[in-house]
Specification:
Length: about 350
Amino acid sequence: MALARGLFYWEMSMKNIILLLSILMIIHYAYGECVHEETLLGSSLLDITDLDHQYMVEQNDGIYLPLGKVSINPLKVYHVQKIAKNHNRKLKGDFDQYNRDYLKYYRYHHVQKLMAAITPDFNQFGYETVIVGKSLEGRDLYSVRPKNLVPGKKTILMFGRHHGDEGTANWIIEGFLKQIINMNEKFHDEFQLILYPMVNPDGAEAGTRYNKNNRDLNRSWAYNLDQSYDEAKIIHSDLKNYLSGKKDIVIMLDMHGSFTDDFIYRVKRNYINPAFYEFQQNFIDELGALDSFQKGNFILSNGHPKMARIVMIKSYGLNALTHETPKNIKIQNSQNRSLLSLEDQGSAVLQAILRQY
Ligand SMILES: [Zn+2]
């Protein structure tokens, strides 16, 4: 009897713990994300009456179409990205209005200007700025990298703006680059950078997460190059050619914008092994100590198999992480956030890399 009661209490407390954890998870996922992702049965999708969100339904190969524009089979399971409609309205068409309320939106012409500005400095370090291809609407896809990749040098790989509407990521990249330009010879003897600053320029101009084909470019990478799509395929193929088998990349960072929080997306402890997890923790700790907004926050997520971060871990064995900072920051904010503080966050990323390596 005593044993039975004991088991009963144990079961109750386990239920409470699970309930509490579920509530915490819901709260957590409601705020700290790049996008809300759900897996839903078609019948539940057909029942949705939520007018505050747009539900984007995954088709083949990373293409997402609005619910209402696709036919739904009630018995099929769908992968869905859920985007708050008020978030979408922030950017729709009118960047001037946006810029009156939020930190300046980073557009395609900003990256063009940046490339022109940094090229002379980077040339001195043996780098070149190259156009590796064109977006679907004909915009340039840039890369900044050494003319000749030096074997044995610690290589940093960075991507920006897989998602067009996540403009703050590019201000962080600008801060990161300014810091690199200020580094001494010793740094340049030890480290080199391969950067693709704006993967999705068409989405950046349209103010949308997706590219011209409605593709989520961070769900469009694959181990097999033939199964990568659109701008992600051009960049993936360029990277593969450029690396030509060299594997001295010490860290890969994919720069994104979240709904509200600063954090890092990383894989769970046993995805690779505990040592890999601890190694990533080390970077997160270093960054957290240097960046007062980021503070060492992270979210465990083994991600979508065609996410750049996951492909880089799985097929290249890289220490790959996704860096998130809020994408819409009010000009008037209680944290004193500004374009300058975003640049400081970029500088902190470089300092954290230096501390780890
Ligand atoms: Zn993103």
